[in-house]
Amino acid sequence: MLDGLRKSVSRALVGLATRFSISALDDLLDGAFAGFKTWTGMHVSARTALKQPEIRQAILNLAYDMARMPLPVLERAEDGSHIRRREHPLWRLLNKQANPEMTALELRRQQWTQFLLEGECYTHIEKDLAGRPVALWPLEADRMQIDGDIRPGVVRRFLYTHRDGTRQAFLRDELFVMSDLSLSGQRGESRFAEASESVGLSLATMRYAALFFARNGRPTMFLTHPTGFKTDDEEEEAIKLWNQRYSGPNAHGIGFLKKGLEPVDLKTQDNNAAQMVETRRFNKEQNAMLARMPPHLLQDLSRGTFSNISRQGVEYVTYALLSLLTLFEQASACQLFDPLEQERGLEVKHNVKALMRGDVDKQASFYTKMIQWRLMTVNEVRELEDLDRVEGGDVFLQPANMIAVDVDGEILPGQPALGAQSSPSETGELGERILGRLNEAEYLSSSQKDEVLELLEEHLGLAA
Questions:
Q1: How many whole angstroms from its chain centre is CA 341?
Q2: Phi-psi sector, 407: left (phi>0), alpha (psi -120 to 50), beta
């Protein structure tokens, strides 16, 4: 509710764009009228949150990791396999150039940044006369005004205010929309705005550290006068003279007191006693939690080891990225393809296999076991490594002497290839085939099957 009020106020301020410069408007949006004022006294908004290094790094990690993944356009064939459709106009928009001004990575990075900071993102889908998408243009979430609720019989109106003050109305099928968690289901809520107190503490800690060093740490003493100064001007002159002589480059020198001044030691806590370092590390852990990523991706290696960082990287993809990528894929299937294409089973699917790879030894061990246990063929392994298929690579190999056999273990005479010209399979489809083979593999013990399930999750990102 408070997030909606903040966005309403921000959108009202956008109307002043025609009277102020863009920089002046941005400063106004960052002031007392935007964001949440936390108990620390810090105002938290999308722009102020980005000033916190760990939050900025978390946003960059998520936005870049998801934006750089290949996003092929696929069509499901009658046999259940996927056929790549590089000729589809969406392939170029999502993988090469989104519009004449932006690459595909730049647009998708902007989409995810808006989504994570504002709780929702909007993209204008420019179409030709035939209704095919020809360009994708970024929109700013805080400049979008929506009239109407999500309910039967209600057509929502989208009114956008451009930076030059002009307003443009959009139909729903002209927009690509993604929303983060929302209690009402109407508009997404910013995860950082909802956790404004935690973000405000991070900003306040950073500000305290900056002011601490800007003021040369802390005062080392108080100055007292036994009878007090006769006038305020005399007091100000004495303080000014002392600061000129013994602050800045002249600090820690030998001072000479006059006019009856006497020193008094200042008993204060230092930064170690105030747990300054621990507080900043705690803030980093909190920000990592908000982004659902392991702390080592925010340069917190206090609990990182050579053995667990590789596993944490896999969990980052499994638990942080896959849910967001699924959201993008489902939104794309509903909003970027026309009804006929949806009936044909056209969709986009991120290729996460590059992020799921562990070290070389573990990857080689994984492939070896999958081949020896007749759960993968040589060509399926080569597909995962982006290598060309080879003749005879679609047969299973018997572990004893590596001869070609079928799925039941019967030796194949002449080792013929089984459909070497079939289209490359996707990681998810391959995982489903392996699971099917695993269920039929009575020659494997229960412990071996459990090991296979763990390997599938680690190397293919398949939650069995």
A1: 29
A2: alpha
